[in-house]
Specification:
Blueprint lengths: L1 E9 L4 H12 L8 E2 L3 E3 L10 E10 L3 H14 L15 E7 L4 E3 L2 E3 L8 H10 L12 H7 L5 E3 L5
Antiparallel strand pairs: 1-4, 1-5, 2-4, 3-4, 3-8, 6-7
Helix pairs in contact: 3-4
Length: 163
């Protein structure tokens, strides 16, 4: 079993509904239950003329290999209306990113672990801190509270829902 953390985001459609549906669709990927942060309303980062996002982070144990997990998450994205040829930093109905896959550090075509920008993104760090206050990224000894203090500030609001 490998503990994984997955970041979820949506800024097209009903974000809370889409994230709830995605979490349900992830259940077959787990060996047990899924822990979920609160849902957060967050301003878009590095995007122009985009609506605000609904974000969350989930954690679960899986027996899937990293690339199998990536493929399964991409199938969930596509089944929820995300085009295969989506651009980077574009609006989307659903975005699922592997934040970490156990303690693995990987740089390959199509997959980097831990996620290369997760340490800089408050919309990942704050929900992640809710789930795992003592979390540390593989290969990085800094506490998550330190990463939060160093991250660029954005407007975020905790919503109802999970958590």
């Amino acid at each position: 079993m490998t503990k994984v953390y997955i970041a979820l985001g949506s800024n097209i459609g009903d974000g809370m509904e889409l994230l709830e549906k995605a979490i349900q669709m992830m259940q077959p990927l787990t060996n047990g239950s899924i822990s979920c942060s609160s849902f957060w309303k967050t301003e878009p980062v590095d995007m122009e003329d985009a609506g605000w996002f609904t974000n969350a982070v989930v954690a679960f144990d899986t027996s899937l290999k990293a690339f199998e997990l990536l493929e399964a998450l991409q199938r969930i994205e596509r089944s929820n209306g995300r085009p295969v040829d989506h651009g980077r930093n574009t609006s989307r109905r659903l975005d699922l990113d592997i934040v970490t896959y156990g303690e693995e550090i990987l740089v390959e075509e199509g997959l980097q672990l831990p996620h290369p920008r997760a340490r800089d993104r408050l919309f990942v760090l704050l929900p992640l801190e809710e789930l795992a206050p003592h979390f540390r990224f593989p290969g990085d000894e800094r506490a998550i509270a330190t990463l939060i203090q160093c991250a660029n500030g954005i407007h975020m609001e905790k919503l109802g829902g999970r958590g």
